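Morning - LLP inputs below, output right after.
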Amino acid sequence: MPNSSNWIVLKFGGTSVKSLSDWQVISKRIKKLRKAKKRVLVVHSAIRGVSDALEDLVRTARNGDGSEALAFIKARHIKLADELDLDGEALLATNFDELDRLSAGLALTGDASPRLHARILCQGELMATTLGAAWLNQTGRDCEWLDARTALTARPAGGISGYIDADCDHAPDKTLQKRFDSDVVLTQGFIAGREDGDTALLGRGGSDTSAAYFAAKLQAERLEIWTDVPGFFSADPRLTGSARQIKALSYDEAQEIASMGASVLHPRAIAPVRNAGIEMEIRCTHKRKMPGTVISATPSEDAPRLKAVSVKNGVRLITLDTSGMWRASGFLAKAFEPFARHGVSIDLVSTSETSVTVSLDDDPSLTPAVLTALEADLAEIARVSVLEDCAAVSLVGRGVRALLAQLAPAMEAFAHYPVRLISQAANDLNFTVVVDGDQGKPLCRKLHDQLIQPKPLDETFGPSWAELGADQTAKADAPAVWWRNKRDALLETCRENEAVYVYDRDTVRERCEAIAGLKNLDRGFYAMKANGHADIIRTAVEAGLGIECVSINEVEAARAAAPELTPDRILFTPNFAPREEYAAALEMGIHLTLDGLHPLRHWPELFKGAEITLRINPQRPEGHHKHVRTAGPEAKFGLHRDELPEAIELARTAGAKITGLHVHSGSGISDPEHWRRVGIFLTETAQDLPDVKVLDLGGGLGVDEASGPRRINTDQLDIMLGELKTAYPGYEFWLEPGRYISAEAGVLLARVTQVKQTPDARFVGINTGMNSLIRPALYGARHEIVNLTRLEEDAGMIADIVGPICESADRLGAQRLLPETREGDVILIGNGGAYGRVMASRYNMREPAGEVVI
Ligand code: LLP
């Protein structure tokens, strides 16, 4: 339907109207649209925190003690008024009086009827817009304030919902279109008028819905929802930092994603704009210039494409076994009838010849009483089994059926996640699998990271959440990483060097002290394979850590770097090393770990009188990528528990004593519970080994990585270790982190050599590549990348950052947001302090980046 007006409707939420700078953002947007000759209607909600305070007021005023809530609400508005240089007392006098009056009435009657509730709640929006309109007028934007209750009329409905969960008519409204003298109108979200002249509220997500109603009534050209994030993401960013902004969605896709729990937009807000054919865009107030998610009938890319992966927890599966009724007609009708009778809504259905399984969402109305009654009724027609606490993982995108072939590489994921139900939605918008509750999030993360792969110059996906967090436009919220404070020193270092790794000693020390300071850890060792720089080894030893080594060369380098390092402070954990290395370790008297039977079986003479540790494979792989998972049936590390009796016997024959057990299941683990599991596993394994005193829980402690893992919380780790020690007081517990000590302390600096734009992609070339940092090519690792020379400039391009190596995998970052980047700029690659330089090569006869410590 063609839109007949030049109205643009903007909606701003509570976090966007709380301060002067927020109002400046609104004003700038209005100015820009006015310049393009658009008429603007702004819908906005109450100031953040005020709606909750009004709810509090309703609750407390009933008992006569609403004064605190009332004082808070008034003070909050006066503060904003002061900041906006307005006379708040005068502007809001009527609202304050109304609140005083209503709360006094509440105290008298003690009865908060839905009608009174709505009258109190609406004041939040009325007050905020009153201040906003006054400020806009004061700053020269001629703005008309509209009481939304005179423009939106709630459809008649009885009971509570008629007051607090109303919906409104939104047919095109010529009268409204002609009603305004001004080209800028400011009005409230969330509230509407009732036919009887009273106030109604629109329920949760009400401001989005109001804005959609106004857009439909005005036949607006466009609706813009301004919020804290730049639109929909391909997954919940809390689950994976590689969740990507979605640039374009059709109405039905947006409806599907919104209904699956993305809190960006209320699903109710879509129907009004869809019916009126109005384009909608979700944009971010903190990234004003960045385009958001555009929702329209025809998204720019027409081919079916997977847009998002979501997970819903608390799902319940009910299976009706119908073998007794094979081919009986009318069974499904009978099976569904009790659900309708008990008011239980079914989400997914899957049927076979002899059974029907349905899923129920976690819904507060699904009380134990309702469930018991439902199950009893179902038991009359079939055998019933219920599986609680499942998770539904959904792939969402138009034409998802056509995409199933693309799933093939991801199917491997299901080997680890038993599937309880599969369902493909009739509207061809989603494909859902139900798995056990604790597997939902890992599966969602895994499917997302495998299946959502942006292309160069992608029309569907924008930057990832991690990139946005790290990108240079988010200066105010930028995390306090050391290199931001030491930028000048870094630029100076790079002036003298080609490409260079720079390590920050203070950060290394801080991390070493965090491990050495764990109250419940008996001993900590730095796994120097992460970074063997002498200075880092010295810093670790000075902080009181020992050193974990994987080769005799490492042992020698550690001793050279820190001569005070006694043999007792060195762990040697080799894997398939030659005989001489075991002999040398025993000679030196350092702790030796065996991870197979070969040494004991074939070189027993070496071990006479020795104390040894056995590395066990716990069979449960962990870690950020399959290449760094060192446990499980395919792993080349460790002994199988079933091999223990033979190991014990071989050690006895050789005259060695098994005094320690060790596990390292993988690298890049964020959940402290992992080490609890390992600890328990080792104590159980140690039961047949009376000489075991030390349980080494390995390394693997995760750091903040854009590709997913988070920095381990050492407080939680310490609590967990304390619990282990209390439960198993006879053992010493050791840890041997590598990455945690050095990763975030290092950056790789490189200079831009060339910039290249092809019809399909843009490349920023730098003077080193996978020869210095192989992690992106080897593991798809995502390192933060910024233009250090232009740190304060806004992002102006999206590019792949590539090196000079003759391999297509020589790409350090794909689709990154950067400011306009030029030859000679210094590019910084974050988290370069672990597994960076140590894994470098001279491939193509190009020297890898050097190393400097500051
Ligand atoms: N202990 C043992 C026996 C290990 O094999 C390792 C690492 C560690 C401790 C230290 O793990 P960390 O705390 O650093 O995660 N190149 C890969 C990591 C390989 C880890 C090898 N073993 C990467 O860049 O992610």
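Note: Residues 527, 529-530, 548, 573, 628, 630, 664, 667-668, 698-701, 736-740, 775, 779, 834-835 surround LLP (CB under 6 Å).

O.
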